[in-house]
Amino acid sequence: MSLQLLLGAAFAPLLVAYAVACLRDPLRYALPPYAVLIPFSSLLAVGPGPFGSVSSLLGLLLGVGLLAQLVTTRRGSTQLPIEVPVWLAFLALCGLSLFWSIAPSATVEGFAVLSSLVLLFVALVLTRFDVQTLRLFENSIVLGGALVVGYGLAQVLFLGGLPAFDGGAGRFGDDLLGANNQAASLLLPAAIAAGRTLTGMGRWRVVYGAVTLAMLLGVLMTGSRGGLLAILVVFMSIILFSAARRIAKAALVGAAVAVLAVIVVVNPGGLGERQVNKDTTSGRTEIWAVGLYACRHYCLTGAGWGGFPSVYAEERASVAEAKVLRRGTAYEPHNIFLLALIETGVAGFLLVVVGLGLAIWTALRLPVSMRGPPMGAILGIIASSFFLSNLEFKFFWAVLTYVAVSGTVIASVRAGRLRDAPAERRRPLAAGQDGR
């Protein structure tokens, strides 16, 4: 008997016990490790394909557990956020696009990934969260961000440097989600940590301040200029929408500026080179030019979900400034709004805009004591979405989940249905402080 079989036999009872625990209480046992592993992607995988990572398997277990809980115990949320039917309508449109898709196999594969993310989002939003469970979700997100940045620092300091592909400079995340998406995955933990930095007490404020700066360092290590812009949007939103003393906000801004200046000016280990190197281009403007040119054919009904690479290959020769790009992933539209318009038509584009707009509205209606992190996260992910095609990534839906769940929790607190709310959320809100 091989060592692998022996280890499998030894751990099988533990895995079965863990699976049973997840099915009985998915928010306690399945959601935290799932959230922690979101930024690690295929680094921790047990098989090939989009569903072979440990985080995907945990997501499946989490979804099954939530569905079983909703059916058997009726522990559903007391409210149905309007974002749910909007995103379900978008998912349905993506599935129906198979009937007119110019790349049916890509549509089927992409729809399988998108449906798993949207349905998990719906299951989480429909599940009854309390304040403690929301806090556990936040803690898990922050821990995952801190751990993945620690992994990047270990690569720089001890493992021979950041991974480099196609002869380019090393970039953090190229062996995980891809450098640009890796930067976007750090926006939610950065928003939560920054919010706690401003509102925390004692030494915890210092701890979360250090985590916030680590998230900024992680984004800088990716070399993503869009990611840097997005995390700056996160910080500005936290400063604008959080209820904190001006001195705390000034300290956060000063520390972030200092870290940014050291990395860009001193350029330790070449980490800041890509941020200031004007010779490095991503090819996005050329991709966007092809996409806009193809709009005359596909913007009404769409080319089918997952069809943009085929559209690009078909229309590239008709756009003089476009060129053959080296990496196949460069055929992505690098903009979720252009993606929705080309692949799902005007209807899909409007659904994406409405879904994101409703998330902003939900965050704005939160009490000022907790508005900062959700607003920072949603505005940051929208900023990053102007440069990325991230609708099929877990971190995108984690942001939408966080905003929607925050809304349902505070609605239950206001209605008196949650008796375990912290003291500051049980006190009556002063006029003008509840975001309405």
Automatic annotation (TrEMBL):
Subcellular location(s) of the protein: Membrane
Membrane topology reported for the UniProt record: Multi-pass membrane protein
A Pfam family per the record: Wzy_C
Transmembrane segments: 51-72, 84-102, 108-129, 141-162, 182-199, 206-222, 228-244, 251-271, 336-360, 372-389, 395-416
InterPro entries reported in the protein's UniProt record: O-antigen_ligase-rel_domated, WaaL-like
Keywords assigned: Membrane, Transmembrane, Transmembrane helix
Domain of life: Bacteria
Gene Ontology terms: cellular component: membrane
Domain O-antigen ligase-related positions: 211-352
Protein name per its UniProtKB record: O-antigen ligase-related domain-containing protein
Lineage, uppermost ranks: Bacteria, Bacillati, Actinomycetota, Actinomycetes, Geodermatophilales
